[in-house]
Design brief:
Alpha-Beta Plaits, elongated, Nucleotide-bd_a/b_plait_sf, mainly beta, RRM domain-containing protein, 3 strands, RNA-binding_reg, single chain, RNA-binding
């Protein structure tokens, strides 16, 4: 059995309209998504145009 590794990726240059769900769906083809989060302005709740995705992959898999 292959060991699993978590990768946390910064994703920048996102549209203001990008949601957590859209980000999750966009990266789901690369592995099992553990977490996806759009970073939002504390005061306005509006997207800041970037986020993070954490994927779990087997050691021998590659994300292109």
């Amino acid at each position: 059995m292959s060991a699993k590794i978590e990768y946390r990726c910064f994703v920048g240059g996102l549209s203001w309209a990008t949601t957590d769900q859209i980000l999750h769906e966009a990266f789901s083809q690369y592995g099992e998504i553990i977490d996806s989060k759009i970073i939002k302005d504390r005061e306005t709740g509006r997207s800041r145009g970037f986020g993070f995705v954490t994927l779990e992959m087997r050691r021998n898999e590659r994300c292109y």
